[in-house]
Specification:
Elements: E1 5-10, H1 16-28, E2 34-37, E3 48-49, E4 53-60, H2 68-74, E5 78-79, E6 83-90, H3 98-108, E7 112-120, H4 139-158, E8 188-189, H5 199-203, E9 209-212, E10 215-218, H6 228-232, E11 238-239, H7 243-255, E12 263-265
Parallel strand pairs: 1-2, 1-4, 3-5, 4-6, 6-7
Antiparallel strand pairs: 7-12, 8-11, 9-10
Length: 266
């Protein structure tokens, strides 16, 4: 199948999805293809991808589902029946319905999924006290991301078009499980550790962190608990202290120690 161009879309608050995307891009043979970062506030996927464009879409997994914010930002995108490569990144617990949700969304938007993968990234709630999948995706993960991209490239080279391909089947259930709730809880700032550098403001994908005269202020109602501000704080001043979140982090660190391997479907 002839591919005239490739376009990559990603929602990646803590950077793990973006790392996997780069590995897939190398495997596909499109390392210089256009990237659309959907992580920044007010970002949206826009326009139409023609049938000769290979579209790659990646997002993290929150509680077994796609982040609602990622779905909202992808919805304006349209395809003309062209091939799509889809992947999700989860924190070593489970990706549950997220990959199926992304596949169904891609079809709804007018794409034909030809490959899908689930990869592992350091969990958003991972801390030195409650480590979960620290440092992932690592070299082994990225090697598999490249392998996934190569498998998709081979599939494209072997087929005259998407009409000759069978529909892609990926794991998941419908109706989807309940996703993550948002609002009411958010990271806090340890004032004595804060240098007012503003990196937490820059890192927030929904623009709910503000630097004011009184210090760092967070709109808890808007927070999606991605923990980008926590991961990006150079002094460790941004912390998640809520007891319910701490309990989740402790449970994850206890129960999700065994290394899970990426898997893909082509």
């Amino acid at each position: 199948m002839r591919i005239d161009a490739a376009k990559f879309f990603s929602f990646s608050p803590t950077g793990t999805t973006q790392k996997v995307l780069e590995g897939i891009a190398q495997g596909l043979g499109w390392p210089e293809a256009e990237r659309v970062d959907l992580t920044r506030p007010k970002a949206q996927a826009q326009g139409v991808c023609d049938s000769g464009v290979l579209t790659v879409i990646g997002a993290p997994v929150y509680a077994g589902r796609l982040p609602a914010e990622a779905v909202r930002r992808l919805r304006p995108l349209r395809g003309k029946g062209g091939p799509a490569v889809l992947f999700v990144v989860y924190g070593n617990r489970a990706y549950e319905d997220a990959l199926l949700e992304l596949s169904n969304l891609a079809v709804e938007l007018g794409f034909f999924p030809i490959g899908a993968g689930a990869f592992i990234g350091e969990h958003s709630f991972s801390t030195p006290a409650t480590p979960v999948a620290v440092g992932r995706p690592d070299a082994a993960d990225l090697r598999l991301a490249r392998e996934f991209g190569q498998a998709v490239a081979a599939k494209l080279a072997a087929a005259p078009g998407t009409a000759a391909m069978d529909p892609l089947i990926v794991p998941g259930n419908m109706p989807y499980r309940d996703g993550a709730t948002t609002g009411g809880l958010a990271p806090e700032t340890v004032a004595d550790e804060c240098e007012r550098c503003g990196q937490c403001v820059t890192a927030c994908p929904v623009g709910c962190v503000h630097l004011e005269d009184s210090g760092v202020v967070t709109d808890k109602a808007a927070c999606i608990r991605c923990c980008a501000c926590v991961k990006g704080c150079p002094t460790g001043a941004r912390v998640m202290t809520d007891a319910s979140i701490q309990a989740i982090a402790t449970r994850l660190a206890t129960n999700c120690k065994d290394r899970k391997a990426p898997e893909y479907f082509v």
